[in-house]
Design brief:
heterodimer, A: five-stranded antiparallel β-sheet, globular, B: 12 helices
């Protein structure tokens, strides 16, 4: 049973990072140490906005739109997408890269909006800020009704002069790393064919609609 | 009978599946990835993953859904607390073997407080009083001692593991006092009951998560492998990082040596 419990904890990352469920991290950019406080403020402000949308008034469609606007502004989607394709990014043709990034974005959006209802009542508290491989990790504890509080750390990099989320560590597991494992394993079982991955992602994106 | 045949078929398939083929040495990136994945028994592991998945779909998941539907959340929490409390002796032993007296102290207080004030562990009073729960098992202990996990293993029934954690699992059973206490039908019945309840409790807490992984991942096997590995590493790291001093803050500091 112990092993099952490990899996439970490990897998709980998906439940642990409400709202950002499928926001995977991206490329590292050097972040100055003194930027850490700014990054913490960035996460705190974003978190407050997200919680306000999720728990606020409005129709589901309105909330979904508001959520996506916040997420798109705060997350380095392209960097994350590139990271998740790993060494296959260079193998892909420019048009495949473009298709892949846009599908990645769509799947991510579907994953976030599809579970909007389950985030109701979510709240968070801020924790410590620590340097992480040139980026900054901003720790939070996310609480949802009926669930144990979850440690969620947001990895923030400075990209194009502004802070951007490049990864989410939930209970010690990196989302971008997990996503990359998924894609690379899929590719290795499909003759390293990037087009097969794109087709599978398209199917995923359509299935959610 | 059918189960035996199923197990035999699974074993045969697993043996036939054999080992994963490493990529050609000339492809450096692919080779690095293969090493990092560290899953040389992948074909066999995938067979066991599928067997487990089939058992889960047929039995465990429906039982867990039924449990969630019938038993209200507060009661489920109490069940979880009791199971957790029963596990504290093993946690305590591992805290000590890790050489972490503060963690051992936390566990000891949890055991004492929750067993008494918490009425046989039904209520988790200790967390609110400043002794929160943490993870400890012999797999983690071995990891803290510097022993590498070894290749990934997906075990029948138990799920994601590796040689180190599989050994740890066995040692934890041996460390559990209830393994050695008493005999007879009642004791046997109770211990099976605890195992069954533990499985249902764990599966219920996993319901949404596993459903989500299966719906969102293109290769759930690989996703679970990655999650399980990362999480084990994080658990071991958490123990290493816990460097709280044994002497509490309020205790007067010893005078500095004069020579």
């Amino acid at each position: 049973m112990l092993q099952r419990r490990h899996l439970l904890r490990a897998a709980s990352i998906f439940a642990a990072a409400p709202v950002f469920l499928s926001v995977w991290g991206g490329f590292a950019a050097p972040a100055r140490a003194d930027a850490a406080a700014d990054d913490a403020r960035f996460i705190e402000a974003l978190g407050k906005d997200l919680v306000a949308v999720v728990n606020g008034p409005g129709s589901t469609a309105e909330k979904q739109a508001a959520l996506l606007k916040l997420v798109d502004a705060a997350v380095d989607v392209e960097g994350i997408a590139r990271f998740c394709l790993g060494r296959f990014w260079r193998v892909a043709t420019p048009s495949q890269q473009e298709n892949y990034v846009s599908l990645f974005h769509r799947v991510m959006q579907n994953n976030i909006t599809g579970r909007l209802g389950q985030y109701k009542g979510v709240s968070f508290t801020m924790g410590r800020t620590t340097p992480r491989d040139g980026d900054v990790g901003v720790a939070t504890v996310v609480t949802q009704p009926g669930q144990a509080p979850a440690d969620v750390e947001w990895i923030v990099a400075t990209i194009g002069g502004k802070p951007q989320i490049v990864d989410v560590m939930a209970e010690g597991t990196s989302m971008r790393l997990t996503q990359r494992s998924d894609y690379t394993s899929f590719l290795s079982h499909n003759n390293d064919n990037v087009q097969a991955l794109i087709d599978a992602m398209r199917k995923q994106a359509l299935a959610a609609n | 009978m059918r189960l035996t045949r199923l197990a035999a078929a699974a074993l045969l398939a697993a043996l036939l599946a054999g080992c994963a083929t490493p990529p050609p040495a000339s492809d450096k990136e692919a080779t690095a990835e293969f090493r990092q994945t560290n899953d040389p028994l992948e074909p066999t592991n995938r067979v066991f993953y599928q067997v487990n998945d089939a058992i889960d779909t047929a039995v465990l998941r429906p039982v867990a859904i039924g449990y969630r539907d019938v038993v209200p959340q507060p009661v489920r929490d109490h069940v979880h607390n009791v199971l957790d409390n029963l596990g504290t002796p093993v946690t305590l032993a591992n805290d000590m073997m890790e050489g972490k007296p503060r963690r051992a102290g936390d566990t000891l207080m949890r055991m004492l407080v929750n067993t008494t004030f918490g009425i046989a562990g039904i209520f988790d009073v200790a967390t609110g009083w400043g002794w929160p729960a943490h993870d400890a098992d012999f797999g983690i202990t071995l990891g803290v001692w510097g022993i590498d996990s070894g290749p990934y293993l997906f075990l029948p029934i138990l799920g994601p593991s590796n040689p180190r954690d599989a050994v740890g699992f066995g040692v934890d059973i041996a460390l559990d006092p209830t393994t050695w206490v008493g005999s007879g039908d009642v004791v046997t019945g109770l211990s099976y009951g605890r195992i069954a309840l533990g499985a249902i409790d764990a599966r219920e807490r996993l319901l949404d998560t596993l459903d989500k992984i299966k719906a969102q991942a293109l290769d759930p096997y690989a996703t679970i492998r990655s999650l399980a590995r990362q999480h084990r590493r994080a658990q071991i790291e958490a123990v290493r990082k816990d460097t709280r001093a044994t002497v509490p803050d309020w205790y007067p500091a010893a005078a500095a040596p004069t020579h």
